[in-house]
Amino acid sequence: MVHWDVATTEPASADRGRDGVELQLCDVWRKLLGRTDVGIHDDFFSLGGHSLLAIRLTVEVRRLFQVDLTAADLLAAATVAELAEIVRRGSAGGTGQLVRIQAGSGGSPVYALPPVSGTVLLYPPIARAMGADQPFWAVQSVGLLPGETPLASLEEISEAFIEQLRAVHPEGAEWNLIGYSMGGLLAYETARRLKERGERVGLVGLLDTRIVVEAGADPDFALRALLWRGLKLEVDVDWLRSLTPEERAKELVERAVAAGTMPADFDADRLRRMIDMYQFNLDALAAYRIEPYDGTVTVFRVTDRSMEDGTLPEDLGWSEVAARTVVCDVPGDHFTMVEPGQVEVLGRRLREQLALAGDAPDTALA
């Protein structure tokens, strides 16, 4: 049974964003209002927003989502959660997979690739822990948005991500890629492909990612992960299994919206796509055949290994395929390393290794 990626569906606090639209709107508000944190239910004007900032807000929304807001829209939707509903209706899924987690103030961006859930909601705390000045983007899996068909292999997924990221990657900047669990394998494969094409690759950060993943046979894996780590709902899984897929999705959406862990405009079809995404990604993992990488990877290895069976090597096997492997210890276990109390150290370690990667020769850290 694959159990090591259950913690990837939601951030520590859903109040800071429950999907890519809300995450990006919170980032825009922080930048415009000069605040360090914004919740999805905070009022724009109560936080210091005014007419001139509102105009700048409409410009940013048009740039990020290709949606034109009116003054009436802003007055009727004064919170991130309310505004996100308008943006989703207006964009009709046209925002793609890119999510800007943090605008930052300069330097080479960090790109975070998705874990097996396909979502990017665990990355905002990591971005904040790296510092508000660090540009930080994330990419969600193809297949979560309406009309998208999931990709069948890690190789295809990696190619699609490269195409998406080129749209925002600064010319001449090095590529810094990180990933949690399965996201680390995607970061590795993406770095390998970029380097083969002569691109400059900086940090390749693998957040407790194993080189080998044993695909599981638990039919309820996705459902359990979504319930307990994502929707924060206490629901009997056996009872849910007795429902039809349509009844199950409708029941979960109603409960999650009432609990505030899903946006009010979330529908059952979108929830079904989230559950299906786990299986698509697990199938892609099972079929992946890793190839050598002529560069350095940095493994962020948890110090609490009580969940492991004691047979995993210190570098989780990456020295078998990478030209050089750096192991960087971080507190917590596989799940808690990205949660408050531990993620702050992870952010600092990432920042340190990012600086070292930028100072080092193209092939490896000094």
Q: What distinguishing features does this structure have?
A:
Rossmann fold; alpha/beta; 7-stranded mixed β-sheet; Non-ribosomal Peptide Synthetase Peptidyl Carrier Protein, Chain A; 7 strands; disordered N terminus; globular; 366 residues; 12 helices; 3 domains; 41% helix
Description:
The protein has 366 residues and is of the alpha/beta class. It has 3 domains: 16-91, Orthogonal Bundle (Non-ribosomal Peptide Synthetase Peptidyl Carrier Protein, Chain A), CATH 1.10.1200; 96-211 and 290-359, Rossmann fold (3-Layer(aba) Sandwich), CATH 3.40.50; 221-284, no CATH class. The chain contains 12 helices and 7 strands. It has helices spanning 20-33, 51-65, 71-76, 80-91, 123-130, 154-166, 182-196, 221-231, 237-241, 245-259, 268-287, 343-359, and strands at residues 98-102, 110-113, 136-139, 175-180, 201-207, 293-302, 322-330. The protein has a 7-stranded mixed β-sheet with strand order 1-3-2-4-5-6-7, sandwiched between helices. α7 (182-196) links the parallel β4 (175-180) and β5. α5 packs across α12. It is globular, with a radius of gyration of 20 Å.
How are the SSEs ordered, and which strands pair?
Blueprint: H1 20-33, H2 51-65, H3 71-76, H4 80-91, E1 98-102, E2 110-113, H5 123-130, E3 136-139, H6 154-166, E4 175-180, H7 182-196, E5 201-207, H8 221-231, H9 237-241, H10 245-259, H11 268-287, E6 293-302, E7 322-330, H12 343-359
Parallel strand pairs: 2-3, 2-4, 4-5, 5-6, 6-7
Antiparallel strand pairs: 1-3
Overall structural class, as computed from helix and strand content, comes to alpha/beta
Query: What is the CA–CA distance across the termini?
Result: 39 Å
Count of folded domains: 3
Looking at the overall shape, the CATH architecture of the largest domain is: 3-Layer(aba) Sandwich
Specify the CATH class of the largest domain.
Alpha Beta
Q: Regions with pLDDT < 50 over 5+ consecutive residues?
A: 1-12
Percent of residues in helices = 40-55%
Rg, Cα atoms, Å: 20 Å
Q: The CATH topology of the largest domain is what?
A: Rossmann fold
State which percent range the strand residues make up: 5-15%
Count helical runs. Answer: 12
- Biggest pleated-sheet summary: 7 strands, mixed
- Return the string of H and E elements: HHHHEEHEHEHEHHHHEEH
What is the fourth-level CATH superfamily of the largest domain?
A: Alpha/Beta hydrolase fold, catalytic domain
Residue-averaged pLDDT, rounded?
84
Strand order of the largest sheet: 1-3-2-4-5-6-7
- What's the total count of β strands? 7
How would you describe the shape? globular
